[in-house]
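Worked example 4.2. Below are the chains of a multi-component assembly; read each line carefully before continuing.
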Amino acid sequence: MKIHEYQAKELFKQAGIPVPEGEVVETPGAAYDAAKRIGKPVVVKAQVLVGGRGKAGGVKLAKDPDEAKEHASSILGMDIKGLKVDKVLVTEAVDIATEIYIGMIMDRSCQKPLVMASAEGGVEIEVVAKENPEAIMRLHVDPLFGVQPFQSRGLASKLNSDFNLVRQIAQIIEKLYTVYDRADASLAEINPLVITKDGRVVAIDAKVNIDDSALYRQKKLEELRDVSAEDPGEVKAREAGLSFVKLEGNVGCIVNGAGLAMATMDLIKTYGGEPANFLDIGGSSNPEKVIAALEIILRDPNVKSIFINIFGGITRCDDVAKGLVTAFKQMNLNLPVIVRLTGTNEDIAREILAELNLDTAATMDDGVKRAIELARS
Amino acid sequence: MKIHEYQAKELFKQAGIPVPEGEVVETPGAAYDAAKRIGKPVVVKAQVLVGGRGKAGGVKLAKDPDEAKEHASSILGMDIKGLKVDKVLVTEAVDIATEIYIGMIMDRSCQKPLVMASAEGGVEIEVVAKENPEAIMRLHVDPLFGVQPFQSRGLASKLNSDFNLVRQIAQIIEKLYTVYDRADASLAEINPLVITKDGRVVAIDAKVNIDDSALYRQKKLEELRDVSAEDPGEVKAREAGLSFVKLEGNVGCIVNGAGLAMATMDLIKTYGGEPANFLDIGGSSNPEKVIAALEIILRDPNVKSIFINIFGGITRCDDVAKGLVTAFKQMNLNLPVIVRLTGTNEDIAREILAELNLDTAATMDDGVKRAIELARS
Amino acid sequence: MSILIDEKTRVVVQGITGRDGSFHATQMMDYGTNVVAGVTPGKGGNLFADKVPIYDSVGEAVKEAQANTSVIYVRAPFAPDAICEAADAGIKLVVCISEGIPVRDMARVLPFIRERGCRLVGPNCPGVISPGAKVKVGILPASIFADGPVGVVSRSGTLTYEVVFQLSNQGLGQSTCLGIGGDQLIGTNFIDALTLFGEDPQTKAVVLIGEIGGTDEEEAASFIADKVDKPVVAFIAGQTAPPGKRMGHAGAIVSGGTGTAKEKIAAFEKVGVPVAKIPSEITGLVKKAAPNLSP
Amino acid sequence: MSILIDEKTRVVVQGITGRDGSFHATQMMDYGTNVVAGVTPGKGGNLFADKVPIYDSVGEAVKEAQANTSVIYVRAPFAPDAICEAADAGIKLVVCISEGIPVRDMARVLPFIRERGCRLVGPNCPGVISPGAKVKVGILPASIFADGPVGVVSRSGTLTYEVVFQLSNQGLGQSTCLGIGGDQLIGTNFIDALTLFGEDPQTKAVVLIGEIGGTDEEEAASFIADKVDKPVVAFIAGQTAPPGKRMGHAGAIVSGGTGTAKEKIAAFEKVGVPVAKIPSEITGLVKKAAPNLSP
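Applying the procedure described above to all four chains together yields the following structure tokens:
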């Protein structure tokens, strides 16, 4: 789960990481008031759950409240990578001397948290990683012992040579790790962490993603979820217990199992089509899930055909077929649907499905080809 | 540092360990009011920082507020092992079905926290340990990973066979460990943990000692220190940065170093005397510390002579001697003092001390013998 | 022969009284697995299916029923503790089916169990099956498997069944099929599985089914180049997955520009491991890579 | 010969710019110790006493000055981190003088450093001195020591000096004298020291100075019975200490009825280790136990 910059900064503040003064507002008038209260030049920043807002014009410096209002009115309502901006953060502008990058993720290979730091902040860390990998310092953390002061000091001293700043940076690294650990974060990032001209160290951006699997025990963080800033299909899928990702193509697909769902998407592409989505309905034969899945796919006007690809294992094909029949009887579908059911009891399943007059396919390959064909026609 | 039962119960409550309702009061009238508010039979319990209050008559059951007042008036002001009772805890009496023991300490040999539990609660664990050692269940805890649910469940299931109670006990074990760990406790103990006749599990006593070395970061706990309930000499010694323990004998001693101080006490006993105290002034030659040490010892009317035993190592004997001279010049001592200084520059030291007309001794043995002699005369 | 499980496997089912646990305990037993015990704290003393003793703890299951392998069906919030309990009780192989365990928990659990000499398969995996020994530990549908020379290792569930179904239909039975799980942190990775298949005399060829996310496939490719003599055929799912989006599995995500299918396919091709473009090519590639296997 | 430290010892002083650190760094160098570096974060780049380079981290001291032994004089709140830093930098022997480290910290530090193959002496100890090699690491007063055949190991500071003073005066020099520290959790215990003295050819007899608290002496007594061939003489301080009271040292406390001097003395006597009743008896007992040592 992603949270907004202003929400992540609140977590930082609670942990003692210095952040510039700021307020999140939803109208240009409120931006004016906020800038006035702050009483200094401010930055107006779009709050969207996607990267690249700077390039999209979603971050602007304002020297006074009037300009803040002006910028807010241009940014609010803006569309950034398909997401509408309905909140901006009005925040004190700081005099930047240096920019640093600090980020934490789980290193899957080492199976330990990894702190990454770079003296080149403010740029995308992926770009640094590709073009100048040795510019990134790495520290693996024992997940039980945490970041030790000697480690954060060691890392910080590679980012700066002034010991007063090293001490501040080291403390921020330790505190960011605390945020990362306590929030069950999958990512905690300050980019950039800024050294100001007057010798302070301040986090002027903040990014925290939460491990979805941990939300059951991170109730307070889950409350931060901004459903309006997410894809509506993904929101609906989550509520229905499905796994869904919207794509740009026209062949919708409903599959049981994540690996098979990915392979189905890939196959659509291989045979010259474009998948409209990833959708895993899991191992159940429950008609409710099928209905929810169809409804989610039908929201997308691009979709021209739907391929249902089920491998019946423990859940037998005949049970799945019965579920499909129930679901389809309740739906009024105007789109062509191709069903492929393979595995345990697939013959019985085909008989059951016959009553629906659906297109069926014997193999994934056949089903995919037919779905592409139908999407084109 | 020891804290009172009612303070430890407050820590328990914060951690979610069930404790009976109770109030700490300082007058019989307040005990009456507390018992009335509780509205059930209560137990009136002396709050003293020493064990054995039950045997001393410091814990009494009262069926109504009048009886609570009566008991409070008999317990308040009572002397328990040299400590005056000035607070009682008035607490709801519970119907006890079973009593359990749970305690946590640091196992010095394994260098890990150790949870001890016994189905025989309410008795001294030392007695159980000696007479029926296999009745004590032991669980070593990884200090970083903490008590895991399967471990607490495993331990609890050896204490009871009803799974509903096992679950409650297991949670209390986990919570007590949290108290132990977060408070930097050297001991966290519930004795007894009671299973009530109506199937609840309640901590009816609570003992938490804090690691003195950790008090620098346990400011809130240090505020719980009840100086009035401690030996005044020990309070003064702590303030002066000295290590002091009052004993029952008549030969006072001031020594540099804990091991040497213990050996000096032992030597006094060996030669037929009785040490009045343990007192370690540490490695410094600072006259202030000597003055504080003498003042602490002089509070004790039993003391008849004082033996100052210093081994000069890095701190040279001549420096120590100068410190003694400064200290003695400021004090008005009516007691015989024997000084023994050995080590680096001991000859110069002896010359310096000559001006004080003090008894000096060449060895620990001689000094101790002389001090005993003077204490007798 | 097989890897990880065989006739000596004595299974304790953690969460045997739950919906999934009881269903799959029965399925495992029907297939031939020696399920010797179940564990559900608080339900100790009862019997499952009138014959399998239920205990309150894994410790008892090990002591009383000589269980040596555990399979876990408990819900995610309780699964990390279940894994630790099994390892602490001396179980040497734990198969964790449970899905949705927080990454933070697994980072703590893995060192704990490794210190105790315990191997974990999963979590969020379908388990392990050895058709020759008629033993399965997990949720794989037994009917599609056949005894034979192909080792299968995969991060996926149904995609694996799809591939196995084709293999079996084409006469290519399996020595052992192992689902290592779709999470970011897992107990057994491709290299571990390849090592075991390398040592297993029954296994003559290996099918490796990877997917986007992480670098386990890249590391496996290097390992194959250095240490594996048997033919390996690979398939990678998620070539069309957009970056930054989790594709069902917690571990199936391209983030920070790493973990793409393209890189993984390139890594295998670089060391001469044939990579199937689509699942239906896998069987043909296995027959080509190990012609002597053809029935 | 000696144990733990010798001519090859290259010392880094952690906290070299502090009051105690700078004083004792000078004392160590005056005695002959090869102090190759100091560490005080933020003071790197300066020189101590015009010759010893100061670094910001132990890592640099190891890399730039080939330090292999560390001695720590920083205040208790910072000492656990200093110990971990030294171990993580590859230092194999850390002597921690700092007093007052919380027990909870040491319980976390000890596994961390052991994983890294590092030995800790202390904390809250006077350190180690090997008079024959003219090396000391710690705060022991060099002038009272003499080269010779007696190994001394003790939980105490000045009591050790008292005993060493008598030994030296009676012609019984020391191979190495080692203060293991007065805390509850320490890095090197009596058994470790006895093992090292057992292997050291210079050491012909050992004086062991214990005190109340814990069971380290009891465990040492069993160890001596099983594994130590050289004569050992013991002394235990705190026979008159009341239970439940901390006698200066954090570890010197009789609690829960264990750790009494009586039990410790009995444990030694049971295995034939002579126990001095008073400190001045020690020298005589050593001469009696190892008559060939008499000068």
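Take a moment to check your reading of the output against the notes. Chain B has a mean pLDDT of 92. Chain B touches chain D through 54 residues (CB under 8 Å).
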